[in-house]
Amino acid sequence: MLNRKSRMSGDAQVRFCERLGLKCPCLLDRIDVLDSEKVKGKKSHLGWMWSYCNPVDRLVFFEYHKGRGNKDARPVLQNYKGYLHSDGFSVYKHFGSQSGVTHICCNAHARRKFHEAKLTDRSRAEHALMLYSSLYGIESYCKEQNLSFDQRFKIRQEKSVPIFDELAGWVKEQIPRLTTLRSPIGKALAYFSEREKQLGMFLHDGMLLMDTNLIENAIRPIALGRNNFLFAGSHDAAQNAAIIYSLLATCKLHDVNAYDWLKYVLTAMPTFPASRIKELLPHNWKGSTIEL
Q1: Which range marks the domain in which residue 113 is found?
Q2: pLDDT above 50 (res 3)
């Protein structure tokens, strides 16, 4: 049962990070929370759901914090080692520079900025989008063919690297030709240029994804929640919601029917051996064939 002590302990967070160690895409989204501690003014607080995902083991982890600064990500990322895949948010850049961490940036975010620039500089924006379309076409082929990491790496080296290098070279050529980088196309070019190395990291390891869309999809229910239940009843309730989001998002990645899983777990838990409780987690669940 969820309760006021449901926040993951420091040691548990470290163990979770070790499990995430192969690769950790992370993003955050806002959630409104009723705050009974406020005496004056608005009684709600703008909190943040920090989300982490391991696409290899297909694990998702949400954690609620009141803020979105370095101190809020520190419990999970301070001792993290491995790949850290994120958007361009400064907090991720900070932890991405740690020893033992390889920071990767999301190409979907970079591509989106060129898409936004189409209204003001169509020719430049469409050229970048054409090259990105080619890169994503290669990724779609690898996924459709269910290629191994080694096979994906080989294809990327043969086909994707020349396209990415062409895009990077073109960006370098265009920046001096602009009178300002404050325009939409200028911002898109600058965003890519500043993160070129991190954006190209996926080319060098077949295990890596090109973007953070997997975790983007996992956080969509949070946006839906803002329109449905509107707010969490307290900070503790927001953390309880983070736990539920974690479990249900992991169900989805493992093609587990969330209703069937939750019904079985709630029925089985009162008599289920504590020593085997991990068997009930979505990624370990074998359906109703588990013997009590």
Answers
A1: 107-203
A2: no
Alpha-carbon span 142 to 154, nearest angstrom: 11
Distances (CA, A) of 191 to 105, 182, 187, 281: 11, 11, 6, 39
Of 203, 223, 242, the position where a domain reaches its end is 203
pLDDT in tens, 43-85: 788 899 999 998 888 899 999 999 999 999 998 888 888 899 9
User: Among residues 76, 96, 51, which one has the least CA distance to residue 198?
Assistant: 96
**The domain spanning residue 48 has which CATH number?**
3.30.420.10
Lowest-pLDDT range, 25-34, 86-95, 146-155, 252-261?
A: 25-34
Residue with tokens 């973007």: 211
Whether residue 48 contacts residue 67, with contact meaning beta carbons closer than 8 Å, is answered with yes
Residues 11-17: contacts with CB under 8 Å, at least 24 apart: 13/75, 13/76, 14/79, 16/61, 16/76, 17/76, 17/77, 17/79, 17/80, 17/81
CA distance 50 to 48: 6
Do 73 and 127 reside in the same domain of the chain? no
The pair phi, psi for residue 157, each rounded to 5°, is: -65, -40
- The total number of structural domains in the chain stands at 2
Beta bridge partners of 101: 82
pTM for the full predicted model: 0.84
Chain length of the chain: 292
